[in-house]
Input
Amino acid sequence: MDAILVQLLNGLDKGGAYALIALGLTLVFGTLGVVNFAHGALFMLGSFCAVAFRKLITLERVVLSETELSPWGTPLEIRTPYVDEIFGTFGEVLIDWSVPISILVAIPVMLLIGIAMERGLIKHFYKRPHAEQILVTFGLAIVLGEIIKTVFGANPIPQPMPEILRGTADVGVLFGMAKNAVTYPWWRMIYFLFSLGLIGAVFAFLRFTTFGMVVRAGMADREMVGLLGIDIDRRFTIVFGVAAVVAGLAGVMYTPILPPVNTLGMDFLVLSFVVVVVGGMGSLPGAVAAGFLLGILQSFASMPDIKAIFPGIDQIIIYLVAVVILLVRPRGLMGKSGVMEN
Amino acid sequence: MLLLPKKELITFVIFALVVLAMPIWLTPFGASYPALMQKFAIFGLLAVGFNILFGLTGYLSFGHAAFLGVGSYTAVWSFKLLTMNAIPAIIFAMILSGLFALLIGYISLKRSGIYFSILTLAFAQMSYNLAYSVLTPITNGETGLQLTVTDPRVLDLAFAERGEALPQVTLFGLDMAGYWGFYFTAIILIIGYFVAQKIAISPFGMMLKGIKSNENRMGYTGLNTKPYTLAAFVISGMYAGLAGGLLAITDPLAGAERMQWTASGEIVLMVVLGGIGTIFGPVLGAWIIKYFANIFSAINENILHDLFSFLPTSVQDFIVPIFALFVGEGWELTLGLMFVLVVVFLPGGLMEGYRRIITRYVANKSDMPVTELKQTKEPEQVEGKK
Output
């Protein structure tokens, strides 16, 4: 029982990341009709927002000490971050909480990147075949990955989580189990809750705001909304920006779990595409459900007991599920009939 | 050789001459060493094969690297178990990758469009992940499959004593690592090109083109399109397996990274860059990408300083760092940018660019189809653009 609970919990945070990426991917597909192979790169860019922010606030002033010597006999270097000089002890707090705070930076940055991407490149591809959309966004993903590589190098850059969140939560006690039977790192729990909150926010945005209503109407019948005198293209551009923000925030918060590296985008892209397909092309609840489902399935498949029966199953489970779903239920779990069934 | 109509025959002969003369005309580009020319030939073959699927039927596979990997592994196993001769290796590589393609194609072709792409992608990722984990006894995991002195090599050792050194891959005594290896791969590329030309003009090829332009209508005429697409898939999988086998012949080492989906993406880049649906375009794309990968990635700041030494130092110091972004480590950035530009402005690839130039300046022959007369010039033009 506790083994199952552990795997369930382990799947939740990964599932949250899949769900967030897939949500943006399917949102873009549902509104703009574009198959965006660069969406994983947006996740990667988000995680590098956190890296860049941390680099920025840990910039240090280096002063050579006049009296003290280092063990090597040279004058001791006294390093003080500029934020400490400006804010005092609050600067320390800022550095400690750099990952959550960089969300504030990532939102405008990702929104701008998303809008620039849509206006600059993707809008020219609405009328072109899906194959060409895949190709151009695939090329764009390579370019973005390479730019990050030139700026930040090709090695993963670990990001520390805030001091206070480094421990683990004793989840088992809640279910009446022995102490420390089932533990779960705080940060992963926060990631799961964060992803739930963000998903909720996106759905609320689409359901309860006028803007969201127009977007949903546009998804249903773009031409009609245009005829009503609404500039639907502009709304859709912003939707693309929102999708970029969602992917970016998923990336920011994931940095303490997985150190960002320029190939991150490609790794997550394949998985999130599979998630979208399993959930059903263009279905938002489908993408979310499939994200969590596949995350949990993946962590169950990596249980030693299951690996003993099917060796290697943890490596292929997601793809296997995708193949089966595509062949048995072409429109995915919750896809509407008629949307991209061929 | 009179199996081709006259026009195709001329193209074919020119192509064959160009390929065989590679050691001569590649010298000014600094690319005329065997290891690179072998890559040109092998990846050219891979691209020709990929085009039979993507170019003729329009099915975009994102999993072709899996067949490349299967071909490589098979060839290395043939060296290990049977003989160091190249011929059995490529035969086994083609058979096994063909069977593998039959299996994957049979399942993936139940869907079309983007779903087909994702299915092939999923299968390739599965093969890649399995090669890294469970199949380690066959693939030797991360280290890659290598030859050892103690391999059984049943056929070889029946006639000769086991030597002390690691054996070389041979073709009845010819060493496959140097120029002989290049001519071997070049001849296979020429044969592969000929077969692709035959397929493109055959009734079978016409069927495939019909499927590309409208599969539904082909279905309405009472044709079952599935066997045709499956055949195209298997043929192009066999090309990929053959290319994988040749890679193992020129360098007997097979690693799983050859099967990763980014490797499949690279194949797609080659074909699209050169020109989808043409026969020479994919080869051209493969050559350009491999040229960039090998030559551009070797350029560093010192070489750039030499290159711009005619400029004043202050201008040099400004220009060199900018160019340095696009060469050396950053050549993939150049590749990505080039690819995006091609897809945006020239969806038909470089061959379409060539055709546009021809139709503009040779207006009276505007409906003249493309010939490869200027093919040796094409890489130059691309560099000029950069």
Observations:
- Residues 6-280 of chain B form one domain.
